[in-house]
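Fold it.
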Amino acid sequence: MYDDILIPTDGSDAALAAVDHTLPIAERFGATVHALFVVEADPIEHSAPALDSAERRETLRAEGERATTAIKQRAGNRGVASTSEVGEGVPENAILDYVDDRGINLVAMGTHGRDGLDRYLVGSVTERVIRRTDVPVVVVRREMA
């Protein structure tokens, strides 16, 4: 039923809750877990104005490597095949492109990442992915972590 499962991550507790909820599903179906972290350029300007653009991007890429490596380690501990990628762009677009390009059968995401007030003003990445994808999306609350 599921061959490839995407777990987009921002390294938050909600994203880790999605990992913990999804690994048994991947294990059950023999699916490969894909961990994806997307470095978003525009909001970075407001969150770390003291760093120049290249430093911000490199800092977030390193954070993405840590977050995706953590997912791969958890998957490996359960004997689940996994792959990871750190990309750049608009998160929901990058997620949807990844789904289409790699034939993803299921997306598993946390309900709230690190967006804080922005989530209420512009909608969360999770909400935008749900509205725009044709594949099932499992949404996990961070309280489940």
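Confidence is low (pLDDT under 50) at residues 117-123.
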